[in-house]
Amino acid sequence: MRAQFVLSEIGVGLRRNLTMTFAVIISVALSLALAGGSWLASQQVDAMKGYWYDKVQVSIFLCNKADVKSTPSCSKGAVTDEQKKAIKADLEKLPVVETVFYESAQEAYKHYQEQFKDSPVAGSLSPDQLQESYRVKLKDPTKVQVVSSAFAGRPGVQEVQDQRKLLKNLFDLLGGMTWMAFGTMVFMVIVAMLLIINTVRVSAFSRRRETGIMRLVGASGFYIQMPFIAEAAFAGLVGGGVACGMLMTGRYLLIDHGLKLQDKIPLVHFLGWGDVIKVLPLVLVCSILMPALAALVTLRKYLKV
């Protein structure tokens, strides 16, 4: 097969269907940018889960005098020194516990003032209204139930709180947004495939005379179909290149510059450039294969060779 002929046919096809080719490029770019962005978002959520679930703790809040009347679990009275010592000793005996940190009511009040110093309700609390607590770091964060079953309802214990539950709603929200992006991506892929199919049909119809002559002189089916497939693949590759640019621009503007999320949310370890670059080759491969396969299937039906 002569490369010059194929290239000339590609140029002819692109010029004849310039508007539809542009639409294909845009739809492919948007669908693959959404696909790449959704994949990276999913990786970001997984990385955040692994990071934070490993660091979260179990908090055992102890009863104080203010809780005796308002909290059923503290109806037997505020925690005593003997109960606190017994709770700490039993915690340290558990094989799933890595470290135990005690926080007094005064320390809890200090931390509260630091976190909510700009809030109008910051001055409405006093140290005696806040609970003493033990902050427990587990060797395996999934073994929360071991601590909960051992200390929930124990005299002097107001509540056993699993901090993972505080993060679960956030991760559920992020996961839901990721799935919404995947759903939008599927819709855009369908739109892109329909545009590719329609473009190939129009191109094949506009060149039916040339393909008929080629068929009469004995050209193979692959030889006749190749220019159409190459047109679709070329348009897809351009769209893939645009999608890669969108992904890199998005990371640059969201994390490094523009919004500067890395500076505003330092507690979150965002995916690096290496993670983004790993996705780009896959985006380019899909941008070529998706239009080429769509064109091949379309040609088998509308171009009898």
What are the defining features of this structure?
4-stranded antiparallel sheet, alpha+beta, 305 residues, single chain, rod-shaped
How is the secondary structure organized here?
Blueprint (H helix, E strand, L loop, with lengths): L2 H14 L1 H38 L2 E5 L4 H4 L10 H13 L3 E7 L1 H11 L17 E6 L5 H8 L5 E6 H44 L1 H9 L4 H36 L4 H4 L8 H30 L3
Antiparallel strand pairs: 1-3, 1-4, 2-3
Helix pairs in contact: 1-9, 2-7, 2-9, 2-11, 7-11, 9-11
Question: Can you describe what's shown?
Answer:
This protein has helices at about 5-15, 20-55, 65-70, 80-95, 105-115, 145-150, 165-205, 210-215, 220-255, 260-265, 275-300, and strands spanning about 60, 95-105, 135-140, 155-160. It has about 300 residues and is of the alpha+beta class. Strands 2-3-1-4 form a 4-stranded antiparallel β-sheet. α7 runs parallel beside α11 (about 275-300). It is rod-shaped. The two termini are about 15 Å apart. The relative contact order is 0.17.
Query: Could you report the average pLDDT, rounded to the nearest whole number?
Result: 81
Major sheet summary line: 4 strands, antiparallel
Content-based structural category: alpha+beta
The strand order across the widest sheet is 2-3-1-4
Rg, Cα atoms, Å? 31 Å
Mass-distribution shape: rod-shaped
Helix-strand pattern: HHEHHEHEHEHHHHH
Helical stretch tally: 11
What percent of residues adopt helix (DSSP H or I)?
55-70%
- What's the number of extended β-strand segments? 4
Fraction of residues in β-strands:
5-15%
pLDDT under 50 segments (min length 5)?
Answer: none
How far is it from the N-terminal to the C-terminal residue, by CA?
17 Å
